[in-house]
Every structure is written in C-alpha cells, then in structure tokens.
Amino acid sequence: MENTLQQKLKAGQKPIGTFFELGNPMAAEALGKTGLDFIIIDNEHGPFEAETTMEVIRAAELGGVCPLARVRETSRPAVLKLLDVGAKGLIVPDVHTVEQVKELVEYAKYAPIGKRGFCPSRKDGWGYDYPGTESVAFQMGYHNDHTLLIPQCETVGCLENIETITAIEGVDGIFVGPFDLSISMGIPGQFDHPDFLAALTRIITACHNNGKFCIYFTVNPKAIADGFAKGFDAMAYGLDVAVMIQAYRDILEAVKK
C-alpha cells in the first residue's frame, strides 16, 4: 500500500484523521469507509502491542485508510517493531530535546540518514514487494522516503527547540498535542491564551520554513476548519471511541425528545 497520507500532503490536500483506540481490526476497516484519510493506532495510551497493531494495519489497508501508529516510548524496539509490521508513519510522544529526536532518526531511518536495522518484514512483503529492484539499497531508500517520522510537540522543551528539530534530516513533520503542550506551558486547556497561540504560530512557521508538515489534534469538530485556517497541513480529530459514544448519546437524546 502506498503512503496515501504522504501523497495527499504533497498534493496540498487537507487530510483528516483520528486516533484509533477501539482495538478491533474490523473497527479499523470500518473507519476506512468513513472518508477519513488516516488513523493513528495508539500504542501510548491505547491497549496495543506490535502484534495487534499489525492486525489493525492490515485492516486499515483493506479499508483504504492510511495507518500511522503512536509509539509507546522513545526506544529502538518500540520504533522498529511498528515500522516492520507496516506502519506508514510514527507519531512520537514526550519529546523534549534535540538529542532525543536525533536518536529517533537513528532508530527510524536507514543509512545514510539513520541506523535502522534492516530485515525483510511485513512492511515490504518480506522482501518480495519490489520485483526487479530487490537490492537492499533500493529498499532502504524507499522506506526512508515513504515512512514518516513525526515527533510530537507537546512539551516546552520541544517548543523551545522546534526550529532545530524541524531542520533535522529524517524528521518529516510535527504533531502538536495541545493538551499536554498547554499543561507543560502552565496554562492547561487554555487554547485561546496568547502564549499558546504564539506557540502554535512558532511551530507552524518552523515546520514550513524547513519544508515539513504540521498536524494538529482537536476534540472539537468545529475546530478542524480553524486548524486549517491557522496553517496546519492535516488535522486529527478525536478518539474513535469518544466519537462513537457521543454519536449514540446524540441519537438517544434526539429519540427521547
């Protein structure tokens, strides 16, 4: 499966996705029928391990929605396993320093950009997806170009280093986690605070000045259009399970009236 999120971003489209928490592969396949552009399989706050993530990735591909995954931690196994089972990109939480991001690049990108360990795996059909171009060098270059590494900017440390972080080769974009960022800034949930709005502008500017994309998360569907108006390149809306709960609540409330 091609990296359709990457293609849409390069084409200047406005992709919209959601966090995947429900855990059932059939739910991921069903989300592909909604028109969503991507899902983020949440290995940080969700119930997933690499094997389950692989099943969800397969279902997402079947449903036609691009599967990203959020890693549980900044470590080589956490990064490598999710890439090898076929995630098209990784969202990386709890980023604080430039050194941490450089370490992530080493784990997630093959040489000469990083030091990712090479092994044929599900991501490349165990080495059989590229007939006539089976060389290791081709496969390394292909996955460097088509697998997205996306640190989260959700700490003051990341914000203070955002210009340097977005300039690092191997970083493809930034994901803004507004809740934790606002908490880290000492203004929890104050998304209209001048300092928070200035931080968003700084992040977007750093990304675009370095040729990187920027994704924003919101739990308010009315804020999706506003996010694009601010200059974000893609939007992640809510958690699938929360959307489902609210949809049923709205239906039942309407029926009871």
Automatic annotation (TrEMBL):
Keywords: Lyase, Metal-binding. Residues 17-247 form the HpcH/HpaI aldolase/citrate lyase domain. InterPro entries: Aldolase/citrate-lyase_domain (IPR005000), HpcH-HpaI_aldolase (IPR050251), Pyrv/PenolPyrv_kinase-like_dom (IPR015813), Pyrv_kinase-like_dom_sf (IPR040442). The keyword Lyase applies. The keyword Nucleotide-binding does not apply. Gene3D superfamilies: Phosphoenolpyruvate-binding domains. Pfam families: HpcH_HpaI. PANTHER family: 2-KETO-3-DEOXY-L-RHAMNONATE ALDOLASE (PTHR30502), PHOSPHOENOLPYRUVATE CARBOXYLASE FAMILY PROTEIN (PTHR30502:SF0). Belongs to the HpcH/HpaI aldolase family. This is HpcH/HpaI aldolase/citrate lyase domain-containing protein. It comes from Anaerotignum lactatifermentans.
